[in-house]
Amino acid sequence: MRAVGKVVVGATVVVLVGGLGFGAYNLYTGVTGGNTTATHDGPVSASEVRDTAHHFLDAWADGNDLLAADLTNDAESALGMLSGFREDARVKKVTLTPRTAKGPTVPFRVKAEIRYGKTRSTWSYDSRLTVVRGRTTNKPLVDWAPSVVHPQLVKGQTVRTDLAENAPIRVLDRRGKELRQGRFPSLDPLLTSLRARYGADRGGTAQVEVWAVRPDGTAGDTLHVVTKGKQGTLRTTLDAAVQKSAEKAVAKRFGASVVALKPSTGEILAVANSDKGEFNAALQGQTAPGSTFKIVTAATLLESGSVTPGRRVPCPKTVAYQQGKTFHNVEDSENPGATFAQDFAASCNTAFVSLAGAVPDGAVAREARSVFGIGRDWQVGVSTFDGSVPDGSGDDKAAAFIGQGTVQMNPLTMASVAATAQTGTFKQPVLVPRSVGHRQFATGDRALSPSVVQQLKGMMRLTATSGTAARAMSGLTGDIGAKTGSAEVDGQPKTNAWFTAYRDDLAAAAVVTQGGHGGDAAGPVVREVLTAH
């Protein structure tokens, strides 16, 4: 039992108060409404402040939440908060020590014993309450607010003790360098996603915390750490050096995104966006890739035997497929005597559209899926959009031949396309190593034949050395190849600029929203990444 003044409050009293509810007979003074002294008008007196504060704190400490709530000017809110403090915050015992009052305000020390499973923790902090006179009763009451329970709580918030959402992990690059939050701005949302997805699987254990709960049920500030978690480690395929170059490259251009990966393995080395929002355009974007997609179209035509790099395929200013929509080249260029390789290097739309009838409807879509792995539910380790190339006929088929219409890609998928063109075999991109987690990785149905790989690489090298990609790729040595693109988007005054290329065992693709020509806007982004090593 606990003595308060001259009245003994025991188990029977608690039951009695609980049965009476709000406005019950106050056992401290024998009056209703939470009064602690006789009714007065005017400001609360020092004795009223002292007595009201002490009675409230004693009732709270005793676990008599009904009585404590009845000593406030918002009994319903106070009861919910005080009950939640015990039940949701797992407080089994609380000691409240009042300090010297300053006018109507009484500071006090809180010492709460938390029990979470077999874990015990002491949570100590300072708080304060203010005594006011009730507006309708003129009785001294605690002016209720969540901040009485804890000074960091605001209106509508409660408290909860539980496991933190994510187990703590250190995310590392491929060489073991820690990728800290804020070091590479483009990676911050990815790091958060990785911690949420892999924290528990990488040797980490979540810490137990007391946190504020917002009115919508989401977690607010951490108020106390009950037990610290154990930090795990997740090594990614990212390369801090390449990532640094990628961040620098996209920072120079509005609406730029880039991805770099290793063609030999599919391991992603860098992901960067100039827009630092939650949406990751480099991995999740869905937009037409323009003429960079001609890599897939060319592979389709070469495999079908419809063309060879040296075959003459004129490049007129305009062309219509099956008397449908008229297609044109950028700046209405033409080359009546061009070969297919020259059409590819100059990014001639009309030459490619003129060949649409050489393969059956749906052939490019099948090539994209079967050889390049597009749309095959990639298990990268983070959320991605893996490309889409729908079947089509007529104008839709012709538009798809040049990466327009309903073809949807992003820098990740186009970097993979360039990588597949170089090696001949689709390697599903990964950001989290294949050894981590239980994932079913996408594969192609078949590889490109060695002869087609040789032809395709020859055309991409021609593009990099003397075609539309020559300026961006100038001076680069080794095994190089590239393709540019300018994609029209409804409602945009300028085209999106695209560029994809490889150099030895490094492939990259970039898009710059409304950048215009691919070689001019996106090309320098890719070049900076290809020269990172």
What's the short version?
The protein has helices at about 10-20, 45-60, 65-70, 75-85, 190-200, 240-250, 280-285, 295-305, 340-345, 350-355, 365-370, 395-400, 410-425, 450-465, 470-475, 520, 525-530; strands at about 1-5, 5-10, 90-100, 105-115, 120-135, 140, 160-165, 170, 210-215, 220-225, 230-235, 255-260, 270-275, 320, 325-330, 480-485, 495-505, 505-510. With about 525 residues, it is of the alpha+beta class.
What is the share of helical residues?
25-40%
Q: Can you tell me the overall shape?
A: elongated
Write out the strand line-up for the largest beta sheet, numbering strands in chain order.
13-12-18-17-16
- Give start-end ranges of low-pLDDT stretches: 1-38
Strand proportion? 15-25%
Layout of helices and strands, plus pairs?
Blueprint: E1 2-4, E2 7-9, H1 11-20, H2 46-62, H3 65-70, H4 75-87, E3 91-98, E4 105-116, E5 119-133, E6 140-142, E7 158-163, E8 169-172, H5 188-198, E9 208-213, E10 219-227, E11 232-235, H6 240-251, E12 256-261, E13 268-273, H7 281-284, H8 294-304, E14 318-320, E15 326-328, H9 340-346, H10 349-354, H11 363-370, H12 394-401, H13 411-423, H14 450-466, H15 470-473, E16 480-487, E17 496-503, E18 507-512, H16 518-521, H17 523-530
Parallel strand pairs: 8-11
Antiparallel strand pairs: 1-2, 3-4, 4-5, 5-6, 7-9, 9-10, 12-13, 12-18, 14-15, 16-17, 17-18
Helix pairs in contact: 6-17, 8-11, 8-14, 9-14
Task: Give your account of this protein's structure.
By secondary structure, the protein is α+β, with helices and mostly antiparallel strands. The protein contains 17 helices and 18 strands. The strands form six sheets. It has a five-stranded antiparallel sheet. The chain has a four-stranded antiparallel sheet with strand order 3-4-5-6, covered by helices on one side. β17 and β18 form a beta hairpin.
